[in-house]
Amino acid sequence: MKKGRWVPLLLACVLLMVAAGCGTGGQNKNTGAEGEDAKSPGKLRDVQLMLDWSANTNHTGLYAAKELGYYEEEGLNVQIVQPGAGGTDTLVASGNVPFGISYQEGVTLARTQGLPLVSIAAIIQHNTSGFAAPKDKGIVKAGDFEGKSYGGWGSPVEEAVMKSIMEIDGADVSKVNMVNMGDADYFTAVKRDIDFAWIFYAWTGIEAELRNEPLDMIYVKDYSDQLDYYTPVIVTNEKLIQEDPELVRAFMRATSKGYNHAIEHPEDAAALLSKAVPDLDAELVLASQKWLSPRYQDDAPRWGEQKAEVWSGYADWMFERKLLEKELDADRAFTNDFLPEQP
C-alpha cells in the first residue's frame, strides 16, 4: 500500500458538495442520520463508514467491531465501504457519509479551506510511514536520495517532506529524479523504474519481509517531531457532531472496543479481518497485524487519543513551507470528546 493520496485538487469539488449538503436538511438513513425507521425501537440504525483505501490492517478495529457485534450492541448497522468518487474527505465534509478514514494532512488542508472535517480518533499513535528502498539500492538516510529516482503521486507535500529531511543531512532535493508512479505496484516499480517510494511499513514493509526482499526504511518521524503526525485518523463533520452527538459517541464506543480487541488479540483480529475481506492475503494480514497491534495505542493513555501539539506542530510545518494558505486552528481540527473514558 502506497502512502495515501493527497487531496488539494479536489477542494473545489468539496466546497461545492458541502454547500449542496448544507441545504439537504439532514442526512439520509443510509448514512445514519435522521428518519423514523432509524429511531424505531429494536431497529438498527444504518451507518456508513468510508475507508481511505482498500481494506488493510489500519482498519482491523473497524472490522472487529462489526464482526464481534459491538456496533449492533450500540444499535448500529455499520456498512464499511470503499472510497467514493471524489474521495472520502469530500463525502464526509459534505455530510453525505457520516464517518470516514482520513489523514492528518488531509484534515489540516480541508480545515484551512473552511471545510468542516473533524478528526475524532487517531488510529495509530505515531507515524509509521516513510521512504523505503530495497537494500541493494544503498539508501540508508535521506541524504542518499540524491541521484536516485523517487516514485510518488505528484503531491507538493512529498517534495516538501523530502526537502525538509534531506536538508538535515545536507543534501539537495533538486538532485532527486521524481517519477509519477500512478497506481503501479511498489515491488514492480522498484525493479523497473524507481529506487525508493513512500510507504506504510505495516503493510508494504511487512510484505517485503514475507517476500524476503528486505528494505531500508527511513521513517519521517525520526527526522522531525513535526512529522510525527497522525495517519490515519477517523473523521466526521461538524454538523453531525452538533446535531447528533450521541450517534458519534455510540459509533466511537464500539470502534474503540474493536481496536482494543485488536490490540489485545492480534491473531484473532487478523482472522476477523481475513474473514470479512477474503481477498486479502491471510499470511500478510496476520504478520502485519502482529507488527501493528502494539502501535495502535503505543504510549497514549488510551486508543485514539490525540494531542493538540501534534496537530499544531504539523500544521506549522506545512504553513512554513507554503503548503497551507493560512494557519490552522488546531483545537477545532480534532476532538477527544467522543472517546470512551479509560477503563
TrEMBL record:
Keyword DNA-binding among record annotations: no
Domain SsuA/THI5-like: 56-269
Keywords of this entry: Signal
Coiled coil (residue ranges): none
Alphabetical GO biological process terms: thiamine biosynthetic process
Leader peptide range in chain numbering: 1-19
InterPro entries reported in the protein's UniProt record: NMT1/THI5, SsuA/THI5
Superkingdom of origin: Bacteria
Name of the molecule in the record: ABC transporter substrate-binding protein
Organism: Paenibacillus glucanolyticus
